[in-house]
Structure formats: C-alpha cells, structure tokens
Amino acid sequence: MKDQGRSTRKRTGGRLKHFSKKKRYQLGREPAETTVGEPRLQTIDARGNDEKLRALSTNVAQLADGGETSEVEIENVVENPSNVNYARRNIITKGAIIETSAGRARVTSRPGQTGQVNAVSLD
Predict the structure, then answer these.
(1) If residue 68 lies in a helix (H) or strand (E), which one and from where to where?
(2) Could you give the CA distance from residue 123 to residue 121 in angstroms, rounded to a whole number?
(3) Distance from the Cα of residue 10 to its chain's centroid
(4) Among candidate residues 32, 41, 40, 36, the one with its CA nearest the CA of residue 61
(5) Would you say 64 and 72 are in contact if contact means Cβ atoms under 8 Å apart?
(6) d(CA 96, CA 119)
(7) Helix count (H) and strand count (E) of the chain?
(8) What pLDDT tens digit does each residue of the chain (123 aa) get?
(9) For residue 40, what are the contacts with CB-CB under 8 A and spacing of at least 6?
C-alpha cells in the first residue's frame, strides 16, 4: 500500500530518516476510477464521523455555462490529462474533458470523493 504520510525526501533532495512506522490512517485506498455508465454509488467511512460518496459509474453531470447550471448526459471521455489510458477506458477524474449532450466540458469536481460530476462548458 502507498504511504500517504510525510515525504521521504527533503526540499533540497536529500533523504529523510524514518522516525516511525506507517500508521493505519496513513494508508490510502484504491482509486474509484469512475466510468461512464449507469449510476452506481458507494458509501465509504471517512476519518471522524464522516462519510464519502464514491461514484463508481455515472452518466449525468451538472454543467455550468456562464451563470446557468443544467443537468446533462455524459456521452464519453475525450481527453484525460491525469492518465493517457483513462480516456480510452472512459474513466472520469478531475480535469477530464468529457463529451456531453450540450457539447464539450471540463470536470471540476472529484467524482471518486464527492459522488457527482460537476463540469464547466468549453464551447
């Protein structure tokens, strides 16, 4: 599992010495990798008395166009700067360019953390 704690290197590039083992709360979870499809949500316990809503798949997005906000249908993922293969696999992450029923849009939310897709229009 990946360590989500302190960096292993200093700002100058030198290595830091470990002063403790990894704690359970420093371990990350597997990425949600939200796909385009029939909406499927998953509730996950977060730290404290909190919950996160993971969107495992979705086909609707809240599109902000100027001052107007509307709910549109997601057709497919055109481009995804976080991973070259994500666009081919239709995986939605923050920053992804999606094709919607109202034109192209950029995703501004984190669907794997919030459970919904918010986007701004590019056309």
Answers:
(1) strand 68-79
(2) 6
(3) 28
(4) 36
(5) no
(6) 9
(7) 2, 9
(8) 455 777 889 999 999 998 888 888 878 889 999 999 999 999 999 888 999 999 999 999 999 998 899 999 999 999 999 999 999 999 999 999 999 999 999 999 999 999 999 999 998
(9) 55, 56, 57, 58
**CB atoms < 10 A from the CB of 52, how many?**
17
* Alpha-carbon span 15 to 65, nearest angstrom: 47
Please report, as a single letter, which amino acid is at residue 72: V
Question: Quick one: which H or E segment has residue 121?
Answer: strand 118-121
Q: How do strand 118-121 and strand 60-65 relate by DSSP bridges?
A: parallel
The whole-angstrom separation of Cα 87 and Cα 74 is 13
Q: Which of 69, 112, 67 is nearest to 96 (CA)?
A: 112
